[in-house]
Design goal:
CATH class of the largest domain: Alpha Beta
Order of helices and strands: HHEEEEEEEHEEEEHEHEHEHEHH
Helix content: 25-40%
Shape: elongated
Largest sheet: 5 strands, mixed
Radius of gyration: 26 Å
CATH architecture of the largest domain: 2-Layer Sandwich
Number of helices: 9
Oligomer: single chain
Number of strands: 15
Length: 340
């Protein structure tokens, strides 16, 4: 009987020791959880970028960000700068992953050109037609099948009677460049924000400042290669179907047009800020439209983005504003936005 009692006591002590050990380990894990499960983000970039006015440089082309799992992280730019004017700008690269944000400072130096050169023609509307090419009528659907390497112009009429034209692989409707899930841009199209777009933004930014608000470009022009990297990263995280709701496949991005940008904070909470509300009521005055308006997802193919604006000129922007009930470019022109 005594042996059984002693054995029972030993087992009880052993259980108590196990429980104490588990508690100690739990406390250690709790105290060091940030170190043990920390999601480190590393940004690799240049400390200084030097360019010339209106060079349309892609400030995101040379920056990469990786998390602790060595996966790419989306990078945006925070801060005010003007690529059309000489000056020095202190900016930040911002990498965001799983609600964690890491920043890295860099300097943008816009230097006056030493020698004069021909200024690039803004590409807000279609380029001059090549007199050596021929044109043929086509439908919205057939224009989608045009190879991006073609130099032959093709024309078509949208479901609402607007004239469309494919010039050197890029599609224009009534002179407005189109890039969406249906209409693709050539891989080598674009090299930065157009001067028209930058100048119009500068005016809008100045007007907002007079009202005590601060708006700035977080993400502007994206090359085909940059968009490919961004899109593939989202596909790894959310799958193709999930990524397609908010990110464009390479060649289909509005950012590649050089006429679009994301402002301030690129997330759904931006719509509730004073800046977003001001933009929703005033952006059209400077030629900008909300590219993916609320309630137009079936037309645009993308969810509502209160931070994404596209330059289309004051005339069309006013029509799209629609007294505050923003229309989509697709809905207005009567075109589709869906991948083949």
């Amino acid at each position: 009987m005594n042996k059984k009692v002693r054995k029972h006591k030993k087992l009880r002590k052993f259980r108590v020791l196990i429980i104490l050990l588990i508690l100690v380990l739990g406390i250690i894990l709790l105290v060091n959880k940030d170190k043990l499960f920390k999601n480190e983000i590393t940004i690799t970039s240049q400390d200084e970028i030097v360019t010339t006015p209106n060079s349309n440089i892609d400030l995101l082309s040379s920056v990469t960000a990786k998390n602790s799992k060595n996966k790419d992280v989306l990078v945006t730019i925070r801060g005010d700068y003007d690529l059309s004017k000489p000056g020095t700008y202190e900016l930040e690269y911002v990498a965001t992953d799983s609600n964690k944000e890491v920043t890295k400072n860099f300097r943008l130096v816009v230097k006056e050109e030493e020698s004069t050169s021909k200024e690039e023609t803004p590409s807000t509307t279609k380029p001059k037609e090549n007199t050596n090419t021929s044109s043929s009528k086509g439908s919205t659907q057939s224009s989608n099948e045009t190879k991006t390497t073609t130099t032959t112009n093709k024309t078509f009429t949208t479901s609402k009677g607007f004239k469309g034209e494919v010039i050197n692989g890029a599609t224009y409707i009534e002179g407005i460049l189109i890039a969406n899930k249906t209409y693709v841009l050539p891989e080598n199209y674009g090299n930065g924000l157009t001067k028209e777009t930058q100048d119009a933004f500068n005016k809008m930014q100045a007007a907002a400042k007079l009202d005590g608000l601060n708006i700035y470009i977080s993400s502007g022009f994206r090359s085909y290669a940059t968009q490919k990297r961004v899109y593939n990263n989202y596909v790894k995280r959310d799958g193709i179907e999930g990524a397609d709701r908010y990110s464009s496949r390479p060649g289909h991005s509005d950012h590649q047009t050089g006429l679009a940008f994301d402002l301030n904070t690129i997330n759904d909470s931006f719509q509730y800020t004073a800046e977003a509300k001001w933009l929703a009521q005033n952006a059209y005055k400077y030629g900008f439209t909300i590219r993916f308006p609320k309630g137009r997802e079936e037309e645009t193919g993308y969810k509502y983005e209160s931070w994404h604006f596209r330059y289309v000129g004051e005339d069309l922007a006013t029509k799209l504003y629609n007294n505050g009930d923003w229309l989509s470019i697709e809905g207005y022109f009567g075109i589709t936005s869906s991948y083949a």
